[in-house]
Amino acid sequence: MTATADYTEKIPNNVNLHEDRRLQRALESWQPNFLNWWESMGPRLPTEDVYLRTAVNVGRDGWAQFGHVAMRDYRWGIFLAEREQDRFIGFGQHKGEPAWQKVPGEYRADLQRLIVVQGDTEPASVEQQRNLGATAPSLYDLRNLFQVNVEEGRHLWAMVYLLHAYFGREGREEAEELLHRNSGSEDAPRILGAFNEETPDWLSFFMFTYFTDRDGKYQLGTLKESAFDPLSRTCEFMLKEEAHHMMVGTTGVDRVIERTAQVMVEQDTDDVGGAGVVPLDVIQRYLNFHYSVSLDLFGGETSTNVANYYTAGLKGRWMEDRRKDDHKLTDDAYLVDSLEDGQIAQAEVPALVGLNTDLRREYIADCHGGLKRWNKILEGAGLGQRLYLPHVAFNRKVGAFAAIEVTPDGQLLSAAEWEQRKGDYLPTDVDKAHVRSLMHPVYERGKIASWIAPPRNGINGKPFDYDYVHLS
Ligand code: BYC
Description:
Blueprint: H1 21-41, E1 47-55, E2 64-69, H2 108-128, H3 139-166, H4 168-180, H5 202-223, H6 229-267, H7 280-296, H8 304-312, E3 333-340, E4 343-350, H9 355-380, E5 405-406, E6 412-413, H10 415-425, H11 429-438, E7 469-471
Antiparallel strand pairs: 1-2, 1-7, 3-4, 5-6
The protein binds benzoyl coenzyme A.
C-alpha cells in the first residue's frame, strides 16, 4: 500500500489497484455507472467549479488538498487507512486472533449485508440533498453542501471497493443495486428509514448533518473495530471526512439559533416568523423529527443480529478498547429501554443482544453536547427559552417503542391523542411552508440570507467572502 494516491490513474487509490487487473477492470466498468448516477441524481445546480477538499493521502501529516475543481472532474478515490502490522481482533469469540485480510466463508453473508447497508446510506444522502443548491444561504454554505456530497460519493466508492474486491459476483451485483435504489422511491427505496425522508430545506440539511451524519460517526466507529481489516481501515479513513460533515451540521444549527435569538431580543417576542427567521418552536420540532428518525437508525433495543455481529467479530462497540470488561460479554447483562405491559420500562437482557442500545446511548450522550451549545447561545442572548432532546420513545418506528406514541417528555398518548397533538411536536405543513418561504438563494460573495448568522470561520483559512463557488 502507498500512502499517497496516484492521481494520474483513472481511479485514484492507495490500494495498488494496478496490481490487480481484474479488480481494476471491474471497478472501471462500474465507474461510468457511478458518473451517470451522479449526473442524474447528484447536485442539480450547475456550477463551473467549487473550492473542494480532495483526499490525497492517509498519512498523519496532511491528508487532503484544497482547490477549485469542476465537480464532474472530482477524483473519487479509494483510500484505506494505513495497515497496522500485527493487528489482533479486539472482541468476540475470535478475540486475540490475527485480524482477517480475507472474508471468512461463514461470515460472508453478514459482512456483505453490513457493507451494503452502510454503502446504501451514502448515495441516499446525496439524492436527498440534490435540490438544496437552488436555495443556498451563501456561497460558503453552498460549498459545504457540495463538499459533503462529493465525500458521500467517495464513501460509496469505499464500500463498492470492498464489495468488488472481496465478495465476488454477488458483491458486484450489490454494487450495481446501490445505484439503482433511490431515496424515497416507491419501487426501490433506500434500505434505512431516515434515508427515504426528504431534505427539502437548509434547516433540514443542518439537522440531518448534525443528527443523521452523527449516526454515521457511531456506526463507522463500530465497523472500524471489525476483525475484517480492510473494512476497519476503510471506516477509519471515512471518519476523518465525517468530522467536517458534523461541523457543517453543528455550526449550521448554531447559526440558525443565533440569528433567531438576535431577532427575538431585538423585537422582544417569540413570535418572529414574520420577521424572516425560524421561530424557536419550529426549530424544536425539526430537531424532534431528525433526532427521533436518527435514533431508529440504531436498530431495535434488543437484536440478535447485533449479538451475532459482535460475537463473530464483525462489528464492535464504540471505543471498544477503552471498555473495561472481557470484550466477549457472554456472561454479562445489560439494562435496555423496553415496553412492559404497554408502559415504558427497563429490562435486563444478555449484554450481547443489548448492543444497539449501548451504541444508541453513546450517541444520545453526544447529542446532549449539541443541545448544551445551542442553549448557551440562547443564554448568551439573554433569553430564558431552552431547546431539549425528546424522550427516547418519542416518534420511534423501529424497536421497542414502535407500537406506542409518547410526548417529547415521555408521557404515553393514545392514538387519537397523538393525532390531535403531533403538530405540537413534529414539523407541520405550516412550519415547513414557512421554512421554505425563507429559502432564497444568496450567491453574492460575502452576503448571507436573513434567517441565518454568518459563520465565525471560513474554510481552510479562507475568509467568509472568499469565492468558494463559481456558478455556471
Ligand atoms: N429502517 O435486528 P434489528 C451513515 C431492520 S448512517 C429500516 O434491530 P440490527 C450516513 C433491520 O435491518 C450509518 N429498517 O437491526 C449518515 C432488520 O432487518 P431484518 C449507516 C431497519 O441489524 C448520513 C430488522 O429491521 N450504517 O453512514 O441489529 C449521510 C430488525 O432490526 C432500520 C449502518 O447502519 C431502519 N432504521 O441493526 C451519509 C451500519 N433499523 O434483518 C451516511 C450497518 C433496522 O429483519 N448496519 N431495520 O431483515 C447495521 O449495523 C445494522 O444493520 C443496523 C440495524 C444498525 C442498521
